[in-house]
Amino acid sequence: MVSFTQFCILYFYFIASVVSQVSEFISIDCGSTSNYTDPSTGLSWSSDMDIMKHGRQVKVENPNGNSMQFQTRRDFPSDNKKYCYNLSTKERRRYLVRATFQYGSPANVDAYPKFEIYLDATQWATVTIQDGSRKYVNEMIIRAPSDSIDVCICCATTGFPFISTLELRPLNLSMYATDYEGDFFLNVAARVNFGALTKDLVRYPDDPYDRFWESDLDRRQNFLVGVAPGTARISTSKNVDIRTREYPPVKVMQTAVVGTEGELSYRLNLERFPANARAYAYFAEIEDLAPNETRKFQLREPYIPDYSNAVVNIAENANGSYTLYEPSYMNVTLDFVLSFTFSKTNDSTEGPLLNAMEISKYQQIAAKTERQDVTALNAIRNMSAESVWANEGGDPCVPTNWEWVNCSPTPPPRITKIALSGRNLKGQIPSEINHMEELTELWLDFNSLTGPLPDMSNLINLEILHLENNKLSGSLPLYLGRLPNLQALYIQNNSFSGEIPAALLSKKISFNYEGNPGLHNEAQRKLRFKLILGASIGVLAVLLILFLGSLILLRNFRGKMSHQKCDENGNSTQPGTKQSTACSIARGGHLLDEGVAYCISLSDLEEATNNFTKKIGKGSFGSVYYGKMKDGKEVAVKTMADSSSHLNKQFVTEVALLSRIHHRNLVPLIGYCEEAHQRILVYEYMHNGTLRDHIHGFLL
């Protein structure tokens, strides 16, 4: 009773698990125009019209079979882009991902397509269509690396890349666990149902995980050939307990092949081999053996150390008949052409038996673009979510770049350039861009970007930054001047304000900041102030020179006027030629030009002194005579006794000196006469006598 209760609990748990699995199935009919339920499986299928905006729907010509999924396909352009389907997953959960391809049999075809499919950044397979009526199936078993995966079609070498169906099947937690699943996917190379009753493959609902189990009756080139003589097919209707790790379907385990002559052998080609692989053999004793009958055998070919020497005794290993035994070869190296042989042991009465097998290649998981770069790109894409360019799928760098980015060649790829000039970007530049350390060029010009610049101080490799013709505002961050590799910065025609960082101006970069009225160059302003100050000082200096020059000219003019007056006075008493000559001689020494004494003619002095008759004194210079001018002014007239060159110089010096001196204790010089070898000085007459008279007394 207890065992029955446990069985019921396990049974209902299994049923609930299966129902849950089916509800999470994703089945996409690529190229279909409507959603539907497949009557043969009961599974719901969705059209890809709402999730794939690229490519075109094509009706398949002469499809093989009546399956609804293969009446249409989706063709993509044969270009350098990738076209990707995004499937939601739960991170770290295992899934089976399946893509199928049936091209059809058109009347005229030059060359069948050949192209690549990728799962995220990992090359999944090269799809080579050789038979248009055949359904090509590719399956990958993965542990989801994130909350979604991308299946991408690209890189056609002939024809147009296409796809018929895309499916995602969640697996039981225990299924297909390996020690290497963090670094490798399992690329399914073969999954065979031996002893199958028909050529039809086994799938859902017989397999609740909807794996494709190919019939060993499906004869095709290089598939399960080289069958050993005496190979027989057996089956049972009894239930087989399959509750182990991989849960092969009961229907598959109810059939088998047996080597009645002691051997089972097959040969088949494994696509994309040689490679390291995970191999599964599924055994269940489905014959009722007599007590004296045994079934023991070994793997004779290929020889695999630690495996080939092991003896398989199904009933013993599985703890009973009609119970699954599934030894697996965790990591074996297999060739492109796989030949395998099971041989019975000498003490076995029955030949070897095989129900099913699976072989999967370890597919190295290729590095995707650095996650922080992808996060930043997604933030940028959200700024123009409706644009075609913003809806490119798959990895930004692998297998081909998005058209608006450049990537580094070494794994993991990093974004080195973003080119989004004039792409209708709106809003603020996302802060996530600061984590793109390998970015060398950023082109965001001619958009509708607003707000201040975010922190981009981590972009130490940035060389070119285009932000012109946007609506950006705020101040220019200081970090712009500290980016070590910045060579060009264009921010013109925005609304930036404040002071331009001095470091930006001192660096040898191409820098354009025109069209930002609120932005000012403090260093340039200081330079402009210095230029204005220098120019002002220069103007003042010129004005000062002009002023001083004017004063000199004015003084010279006054001197000339004085000499002119002297000339006029001389001309009033003497013939003009002579007087002019006499006065010009004195002025030739340049000593009289600055004075105010004027020239008096000799005739005027003779008249004033009565021909020099009244002598009032004598000195080293000569005699002094009393005189009275025509206007009644009394004068003292000093004559030079000696007209030698030396005394002539002394006369000129005295005239020049006395003309400049004005003091209340000195007798002022009124004029002079230089005529007919005469050298005469005319002073104002002082009635109180000389200084000598006051010291020594008056002479009688």
UniProtKB/TrEMBL annotation:
Q: Which UniProt keywords apply?
A: ATP-binding, Glycoprotein, Leucine-rich repeat, Membrane, Nucleotide-binding, Repeat, Signal, Transmembrane, Transmembrane helix
**Annotated signal sequence range:** 1-20
* Matching Pfam families: LRR_1, Malectin_like, PK_Tyr_Ser-Thr
Give the reactions, separated by semicolons, that this protein catalyses. Answer: L-seryl-[protein] + ATP = O-phospho-L-seryl-[protein] + ADP + H(+); L-threonyl-[protein] + ATP = O-phospho-L-threonyl-[protein] + ADP + H(+)
What sections of the protein cross the membrane?
531-554
Q: Which InterPro entries match?
A: Kinase-like_dom_sf, Leu-rich_rpt, LRR_dom_sf, Malectin-like_Carb-bd_dom, Prot_kinase_dom, Protein_kinase_ATP_BS, Ser-Thr/Tyr_kinase_cat_dom
> Which residue range or ranges hold the Protein kinase domain?
610-700
Q: Name one GO cellular component term.
A: membrane
Which principal EC class is assigned to this enzyme?
A: transferase
Q: Which residues bind ATP?
A: K638
EC annotation? 2.7.11.1
Q: Where does it reside?
A: Membrane
Q: Mention one GO molecular function.
A: ATP binding
Q: How does it sit in the membrane?
A: Single-pass type I membrane protein
Assigned protein family: Belongs to the RLP family.
Q: What is this protein called?
A: non-specific serine/threonine protein kinase
Organism field: Gossypium raimondii (Peruvian cotton)
